[in-house]
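Summary for the lay section of the report: proteins are chains of building blocks that fold into shapes. Here we show the chain for Polymerase nucleotidyl transferase domain-containing protein and then a coded description of the shape we predicted for it.
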Amino acid sequence: MENQIVPTLATDHKRKEVIKYVQRLIRKRVRCEVFPYGSVPLKTYLPDGDIDLTTLSCPSVEDAWVSDVHAVLREEEHNEASRFEVKNIHCIDAEVKRVKCIVQNIVVDISFNQLGGLCTLCFLEQVDRLVGKDHLFKRSIILIKAWCYYESRILGAHHGLLSTYALETLVLYIFHQFHSSLNAPLAVLYRFLDYFSRFDWESYCISLSGPVCKSSLPDIVAEVQENGGDDLLLSEEFLRNCAEMF
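The coded shape description reads as follows.
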């Protein structure tokens, strides 16, 4: 069962075609670079997952580019010769400005200058390579995302629930602490549920260095780790190299 919860070739192809279509559209009309990030290039998306794209521009013209991207998509919405159906286009004027639309029944979320998202994608790829075991890290993220979304209904930042990044951080923590005993996604799910169901969320939050008492914030003072700090997955050298690369 756990090996069935993975992206199929058909869904992968469909999302790649949608990404290429939006990239070509924006590059040609707005003349800026567009990159995918998040769960689709990481291959950890669910069937209901959206596509995250970010455009790179000069921050001083970001507002103009938001309007330009929105206008281009609105034109495409009424283009009868368009390859794909584009609909439900709207701007989200939040701290992180975004343009959302639906292309071929897939939600596409376009942000601007979100380099952090690209860096996170690269970092999680490095972690997956470090873990190995036939992409155990990614397969575990998919299984736990599926449980959180379809079974427990706790995943969905736009509904005030757990964000995907928060969930990936929790899964990363489990691997960081217990990687030597993890060999299958179901084992990771079991450890995830067992550990975090007993965690004192009222008093603590999680960091890779261990639980952090909320009363110590903004200073991050980590408690002694579960395994005493021995046999951790992510060494100081690995984290330092990633920080320098990304």
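Put simply, here is one thing we learned. Residues 9-114 form a domain with the Beta Polymerase; domain 2 fold (CATH 3.30.460.10).
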